Amino acid sequence: MNKGAINKFMQIESQQFEQTGWAASFQGAELLKYYLETLLLENRKMKEVYLITYEHKHGTDHTVVTTQALAEAAMLEWVREWRTVFQIPEDITDEQALQDWYDLTGCTESVTYEIMPVITEIKTS
């Protein structure tokens, strides 16, 4: 939905509200316009971050980093820190252990990351 479509929506809605005498709803329509504008991609500046999730038997830990390389390095650091607890054989590399972490930990732990959008600015009219 572009700004022209939002404005047209607002014109139609305001006419309908005036005809029905339901003036209070016009404020709701203004609020809707604001939310629609903030959802438009052209009105937002976006960045991405990497949310690392380490699920284990005591709970879940999260770390946020700014690059994929940092995400992978942090996940490998967890593997290095905890591999002796799970008696992972030395002939398995850290990278292999990370890839098979769930199975190697007896299906009790997992280390993953996902890319998350971050809104850094919203322009409204």
Helical percentage: 40-55%
Number of strands: 3
Order the strands across the largest sheet as they lie in space: 2-1-3
Strand count, sense and barrel status of the largest sheet are: 3 strands, antiparallel
Mean pLDDT over the full residue set = 80
Low-confidence stretches: none
Q: Report the end-to-end length measured between terminal Cα atoms.
A: 15 Å
Helical stretch count?
5
H-E string: HHEEHHHE
**Strand coverage percent:** 25-35%
* Cα Rg: 25 Å
Structural class: alpha+beta
- CA-based shape: elongated
Query: In total, how many domains does the architecture comprise?
Result: 2
What does this structure look like?
This protein is an alpha+beta fold and 125 residues long. The protein folds into two domains: 3-44, no CATH class; 46-118, no CATH class. The chain is 47% helix and 26% strand. The protein contains five helices and three strands; from the N terminus they run ααββαααβ. Strands 2-1-3 form a three-stranded antiparallel sheet, with helices on one face. The radius of gyration is 25 Å and the shape is elongated. The mean pLDDT is 80.
Write the layout of secondary structure elements.
Blueprint: H1 3-20, H2 24-39, E1 44-56, E2 59-65, H3 68-82, H4 94-99, H5 101-104, E3 110-122
Antiparallel strand pairs: 1-2, 1-3
Key terms:
alpha+beta; three-stranded antiparallel sheet; 5 helices
